[in-house]
Amino acid sequence: MSTNQNTNDNTKSGMAGQNRVVILGAGESGTGAAKLAQQKGFDVFVSDYGVITDKYKAALEKLAIPFESEQHTEALILNASEVIKSPGIPATAPIIKKLVAKGVSVVSEIEFAKRYTNAKTVCITGSNGKSTTSLLTYHILKNAGLNVGLAGNIGSSFAAQVADKSFDWYVLEVSSFMLDDMFKFKADVAVLLNITPDHLDRYDYKLENYAASKMRIIQNQTNNDVFIYCADDEESLKALQIFRIEAKTYPFSITKKIESGAYLEHNTIHILTEPNKELTMSITELALQGKHNIYNSMASGIVAKVLELRNETIRESMGSFKNIEHRLEHVAKISGIDFINDSKATNVNSTWYALESMTTDVVLIMGGVDKGNDYNMLKDLVKSKVKAIVCLGKDNKRIHDAFEDDVEVIVNTFSAEEATQIAFHLAKRGDAVLLSPACASFDLFKNYEDRGNQFKAAVKEL
């Protein structure tokens, strides 16, 4: 346990004050929130129950912001006028329960930062595809010459950018955990890509609770705002029956014609947000291939059309985009075997999309921290495309139970190196080795990036 020595008298004594902001979690969002809060004149204290990395310790020390690591000192937290919490801290955490019982406001970094900027926001959420869609949308807007930032669940902290920069627009990737702590925040353009079972351990294992969290993306919207959603997504459509939509709506679909929004017909995307101003583009021209990426491209394309960007700019950007690391990332081809890093697939639906896009036999590396996964939706794809499963996790029993009748070989491994070597031996020329875990990474790795990087390093050693 450690406490930074730059504590001021107010912090030392634990005195309450209307001007005291406590930040729980000293990662990217927490450190950014601390910077902005300090800039706005608050008495700031940062507390992290885990170990604060050297990068963020150095940032806090440079700003002379007091902090503690590997502990929560209640006397220094419960006296806050407001708490900004990391999305990773659940509402059931003891310190959060005590704060709520005291009537202390607990908000997300996004909620706090939005108070201090007049920039417009494009907010993108969904169980799958939100990082890719956020990056593609940012790419299109930036190429069109907009003064735009990228933040939220991706890139640099929103609060830090509000403190340091002056953007007119932000593209924000927003997770359900962030939405849970957003109250007065309003998205000018809200995008809901899909709702599939994910993080159910945080929502009492009830899909309707998780769906309600996702639908907070539309809260506070008016008829001057925009809501974009997938008309093919069953759970989204169910949620739309429950929640009142005030904003202008633009659905997208690959199965039916849409009057105002986007649809697919004869391998051509049609995007129409205003009469006589249609954008058409062949799916072969898209930088992102695969059915799920048609959806992502449609969503980004509607955003661009709503903002009245030129068709030529949108087409060029959608054709030149490079996808993110750890999302169906081609690593190498060795002995005729393709190695693909999809470590960002931390839920079953993401892995379904990955398998659906595969055109060869697959040796699938999967496993990790199971979040209440239902593997049934993978069974048909596993039967038709997967020749072997290499489990990468501490407890692989549920994967064995789910697929023991569907594949001949299921092997347990406990490191990225071991998993990669065994997958290489199980594959033959023309096959693909796909790391698409369907699970969180925290049993063996720091995060999904660490898992993906270790896999890539192991592939390069083959």
UniProtKB/TrEMBL annotation:
Domain Mur ligase C-terminal: residue ranges: 326-439
Molecular function as annotated in GO: ligase activity
This protein's pathway: Cell wall biogenesis; peptidoglycan biosynthesis
EC number: 6.3.2.9
Domain of life according to the entry: Bacteria
Pfam families xrefs: Mur_ligase_C, Mur_ligase_M, MurD-like_N
List of residues binding ATP: 126-132
Record localization: Cytoplasm
Keywords for the protein's UniProt record, in alphabetical order: ATP-binding, Cell cycle, Cell division, Cell shape, Cell wall biogenesis/degradation, Cytoplasm, Ligase, Nucleotide-binding, Peptidoglycan synthesis
Mur ligase central domain location: 124-303
Predominant location category: cytoplasm
Transmembrane segments: none
Catalytic activity: UDP-N-acetyl-alpha-D-muramoyl-L-alanine + D-glutamate + ATP = UDP-N-acetyl-alpha-D-muramoyl-L-alanyl-D-glutamate + ADP + phosphate + H(+)
Function of the protein: Cell wall formation. Catalyzes the addition of glutamate to the nucleotide precursor UDP-N-acetylmuramoyl-L-alanine (UMA).
Protein family membership: Belongs to the MurCDEF family.
Protein name (database record): UDP-N-acetylmuramoylalanine--D-glutamate ligase
Gene source species: Pedobacter mendelii
